[in-house]
Amino acid sequence: MAAVKHAQLGAVLEAETLMEIGSTAAAIRQIKTFLQEESELAPTLAAYAEALQPLPRLEKQLENAISEKGEIKDSASTKLGGLRTGIQIAKNRVRGTAGKSPARSQ
Questions:
Q1: Looking at residue 100, what DSSP letter applies?
Q2: What is the rounded distance in angstroms from the CA atom of residue 36 to the CA atom of residue 14?
Q3: CA angle (56, 54, 75) in 5-degree steps
Q4: What residues pair up with 66 in beta bridges, in sequence order?
């Protein structure tokens, strides 16, 4: 997968690409399980399934970091969550001060 090679070189991957990687990892796990369960019907395929390497930790990390809509979750990292909280607080302050009229001089 080209995206994995880019990431190995230090590239930042888009959320959509990360979702595709997560889906691929889940498919590998499911295929391996299925082929192992059906080894009597398809022993050659079951033998190939042994070479498949599931990545449950990667699946879980991507699931925890990216929403089903393809958005990076605040919980993706502690730092990101803190930054987004700070931005929301700043926005609320701006809205609060913008809604107040300046005090009139007498």
A1: S
A2: 33
A3: 25
A4: 72
